[in-house]
Fold each of these.
Amino acid sequence: MKSIRIALLAVAVVMAAIVATRMLFGPFRYGPLSVTTPLNPEGFFGLAVTLLLLTRGTTNRAAATWTWRAAVLLSLGVAGISILALRRSLGVYFLSDDFILVKYGTEWTAAAFRYAITHGGGDGFFRPFGFVSLALDARLGGMSPVFWHASALAIHSANAVLVLCMAKRLGASALAAGFAGTLFAVHGIHPEAVVWIAGRFDLLATFFLLIGLLLFGVAGSRLPLHAAALASFTLAALSKEAAFVFPFLVAGWALWNRQPIRRTAAYFALAAILFAYRWSLFGGIGGYVDRATGRPAALSLGLGSTLKAVAVRLWTSLDFPLNWSTDPSLLLALLAAAYMAALMWLGLRSQPARPLWPAAAAILICTIPVLSLLAGSPTLAESRVLYLPSVWFAILFALALDGVPARAGCTAAAFMLLFHIAAIQHNLGFWEAASARVKAACATGAPALPDSLDGVPLLANGRQECIEITRAQP
């Protein structure tokens, strides 16, 4: 095992050096090594650090005790940091699909609801509860972009607090659980899910899935709590199909806590019923279609592409959520170097009180539904699909921080949070620039615009709706 850890550390050091060199000095070529956008080095670094953590032994320290006062203060702090980190989203205009969704919400009727629950969407997805949420926003906020973004930010902040609660349930100390919620709140990958109205489905699915897991964790043999957990799962699955991993998560929870596995039977049965109903609407699995083969994209993955997605590009996005359309600033590059040093130190020194493999397994389980979308992008396009896996990424490192001395752990945590705060601000700039382009175009009749700008959708869809909505606003 020692030789394996040495090899992993060597990989992490070499990849960190490549990434840091690229960030500080720009693209370079040294012999056969050419680095323009370091997606693969970032991914190999993230994978090596994760394996370093997973190959570290655990201690048998007792679980940390909590007080209600600490829980309330940490929850308020996490929610406040979430709002501060993404407050710039309130100034972003609607983009592409947003116009269609906003107009759909304003025209919502009882007949539209009946249609939504009895028909599959033309895009291959069945997300009726997500559309109920959009209709509620339209009823309360009309066509105000500020209200729609504030609603999304509120759900994201609630999710960050739920991540804190989940970390606590998994045995994290108060400070570590607070770190988990904060890291999730400011993770650089989240602009697409939070800023783009089309990401609402990811926010809702994660919200209800986490509530369901927390309910299952305390349910024991109490049927009312299991009924509430099943209801939460239903709402999650009707918000986005990624939530169909829920039964596997509760099964893992039961096995890890040595609970009777029969308690999860109802969750698998409900998932089968919901999936069968979805299948009947689409006459198949639905979802995106591979244009080359005409088959569902979820069923078109080869072995090589799957391994690349799981072993490299997943960790690229989770560990280094940077839009490379513009080179990072010097400050961001320096923070990235400190961040990588903190992760490597954590991988070497952490000896957590709780096993880390359940959190790592949850990352992989939650990635299964979106494997076909993990080809990796230097602009973070499609990054909203990693909103749910990022929950367990935050918890993984929170549990790891519990395995190091408090003072050193606080320093490592600070570098990690500072990097992600800087990364999310870097990424939000692209959404603001795209927003300005779209708002100006819609005000003048929407002249030709590209489908996207630096990975941010412009007007690939919703051109006519953008003109109507912009003219209808004060």
Amino acid sequence: MTINKFRSVLYKTGKIAGDINAIKRGKIFQRIIRRLLGKFTGRLFSRLF
């Protein structure tokens, strides 16, 4: 396994753990909104630069 694949697995695991934590705390909708805003912002910046 390469470092990039391992890093990808770690990020995906962290994302899932964050989702589970948000569900437990009852803040899943805030997490979804922040994820969507993050994707939108990333795409916007990639087009600008």
